[in-house]
Amino acid sequence: MSTSHDQNFKNLILDYPREALAFFAAEVAAHLGPDVLITPIRQELPKDRLSDRFFELDVPLKVTWPDGRREAIIFLLEEESDAHRFSIYRMAVYCAQVAETCETDRVVPVVIFLRGQACSRTRLRLGSEGRIFMHFTPLVCELGRLHARDYFDSDNIVTRITLPCMRHKSLLERVDACGKATQGLLSMEADVEKVAKYGYFIKHYAKLDETGQRLYAERYATEERRMVDVVEQLRAEGKAQGIQQGVQQGVELGVLQGKQQLLIRQLETRFGPLDEVTRERLKVASGQELDTWAERVLDAPSLVEVLRVH
Predict the structure, then answer these.
(1) PANTHER family per the record (predicted)?
(2) What is the pLDDT of residues 114-134, one digit of tens each?
(3) Cα separation of 4 and 227, whole Å?
(4) β-strands 124-127, 107-113: how paired?
(5) Are strands 58-64 and 139-142 parallel, antiparallel or unpaired?
(6) d(Cα 169, Cα 148) in Å, to the nearest integer?
(7) Is the dihedral of CA 287, 291, 296, 302 positive or negative?
(8) Cα separation of 46 and 48, whole Å?
(9) What are the angstrom distances between the C-alpha of 164 and each of 9, 22, 173?
(10) Is 46 exposed, middle or buried (0-12, 13-18, 19+ CB in 10 A)?
């Protein structure tokens, strides 16, 4: 099971909803103000009335004003790694369904295209020669068409994290995009788990070849070292937690459980929720197996690759 691009971006939006709206929906978000509350509302929407496709991909966010001076706005964000999968008709229907369900006309659709591919249609006009009866135009953010260098110094953490997804004129610029993304992450995020999580995200989308990795190590040695320190800190915390449990259960068993818990946390951060089969496999694994899998988490492209047996 590999992590889909869609799930990666859902996690990013849910972790940083304010910054995500400021970047992906700048045209509307610029007028919201700093005091608004932004709340994910997926659980509030009745799945039986809405399409499975959007329950897999979309992220609905509700924006409210604490003083109630303005009516709430619902943002619907959809990420598409393949622009050809996007359907303007499907999104229009979904927006209408959400508007009806939530009893509001204040719905803002946002589409995020990961690649720089051309999409056949991003607007919908229904009518005749004399009159248009329906005009639907979502906000569109085409990451692959944005020039990464223009955003190297952005103070928006979502913008910085997604630098590797943008357009790069050369390998060196791609390396710098990865470096600037990591610098932004380290300077704007204090939570070590999120730093590790989005460190994986940055490396995954940077897709540096051997030459690129060498250049990155030369140009961003400090950032590379700090990311290694973050991973080591998480491992140490997991081991400490296991030792604490070991006071009652035996130190060896406690350390093993600590390794299991840390690895589960790392795997779920990287690949999303684990199924029961995978969890059972981790429970019966030896300490050596857990150490081997932990070493693969950083670079393996999928969960299958992490847990593969030689």
Answers:
(1) SLL1691 PROTEIN
(2) 876 656 688 888 998 888 888
(3) 23
(4) unpaired
(5) unpaired
(6) 9
(7) positive
(8) 5
(9) 13, 18, 10
(10) exposed
